[in-house]
Recover the amino acids of this structure.
């Protein structure tokens, strides 16, 4: 029995899950970054400045959110989460830039979108160039 995919042909899709965001602090930090809107989700993006500078950059990290307000039934929320995770695992995560964090905020349409189209949307959103958000025009307080 082999481990690590040694028996897998070269060029095969990797079954390893992408690196995940796990803490609330990480999700909140990404929420302050840029956003991209797609039909099935909203993608939040943040460049990690605290990543170790080893030259190659650290791998992108991903988080998934499916709000109860958007999708009230737990069965549907879990199904959307599984579909998004599998789309990332099936190769869409390869489009992510190193030293970046991404959060996918799912919409109810993610359940009805064909899987191939969902993968394409995620790959396109991840591959687009990252623009930092513009500063908000708020009055300064004395």
């Amino acid at each position: 029995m082999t481990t690590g995919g040694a028996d897998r042909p070269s060029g095969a899709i990797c079954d390893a899950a992408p690196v995940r965001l796990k803490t609330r602090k990480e999700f909140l930090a990404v929420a302050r970054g840029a956003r991209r809107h797609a039909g099935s989700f909203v993608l939040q993006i943040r460049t990690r400045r605290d990543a170790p500078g080893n030259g190659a950059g650290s791998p992108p990290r991903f988080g998934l959110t499916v709000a109860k307000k958007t999708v009230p039934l737990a069965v549907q929320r879990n199904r959307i989460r599984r579909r998004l995770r599998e789309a990332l695992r099936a190769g869409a995560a390869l489009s992510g830039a190193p030293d970046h964090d991404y959060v996918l905020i799912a919409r109810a349409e993610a359940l009805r979108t064909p899987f191939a189209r969902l993968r394409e949307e995620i790959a396109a959103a991840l591959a687009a160039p990252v623009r930092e958000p513009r500063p908000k025009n708020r009055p300064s307080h004395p």
